[in-house]
Amino acid sequence: MTGPIVLVGHSYGGAVVTNAAADPDVKALVYVSAFIPDQSETVFGLATENEGSKISPDTIKTVPLPSGDADVYLRPENFTDIFSADLPRSTSALLAVTQRPVTYSALNEPSGTPAWKTVPSWALVSRDDHAIPLQTQRFMTARAKSRTVEVTGSHAALISKPGTVASLVETAARATD
User: Taking Cα atoms as reference points, which of 173, 127, 157 lies closest to residue 14?
Assistant: First the structure.
């Protein structure tokens, strides 16, 4: 692959793109209802920094792994409220039973040097997000100086607001020309 790269991350994926953008061809970062950590911050720390997240020990399920780590899932009975309240029930139910876990250690891994300090970023903030509090999303996007769009939508805005997400990614890509 050649040419400019736009990295897009949703939720925990925001922490991934923040730390994976060392390639000089990465010209833009796009965060969609995502964590945007600074050096040494953790996803878990950011998630609990402000009130508004409905993720708690009562709403998650952990599955121990042989390594001593654990996979973390949202409990299906809490999934819609936390993740996808603006999607049809059938879609939300399917997402709940097919969700990919994140490891407990990944949620507590200190972030490295953030790419957003040297790579321009764009962000979509979901006002009705019950996974990442609105105040936290606004704080992270302001700190990263992200060009930000806010939507009335859940944490699943990448599904419920696909046109807005696509437009944001296209805007970031055009800015790299």
Answer: 157
pLDDT in tens, 50-84: 999 999 999 999 999 999 999 999 999 999 999 99
**Element (H or E) spanning 10, and its range?**
strand 5-11
What Å distances lie between residue 120 and 6, 40, 72, 127, 137, CA to CA?
10, 20, 31, 23, 17
For strands 102-103 and 26-34, give the pairing: unpaired
Rounded CA-CA distance 73/44 in Å is 14
- How many Å apart are CA 1 and CA 9, to the nearest integer? 19
Radius of gyration, CA atoms only, the chain: 16
Question: What is the sign of the dihedral through the CA atoms of 144, 145, 147 and 148?
Answer: positive
Helix segments in 84-161, DSSP class H: 89-98, 104-107, 134-143, 157-160
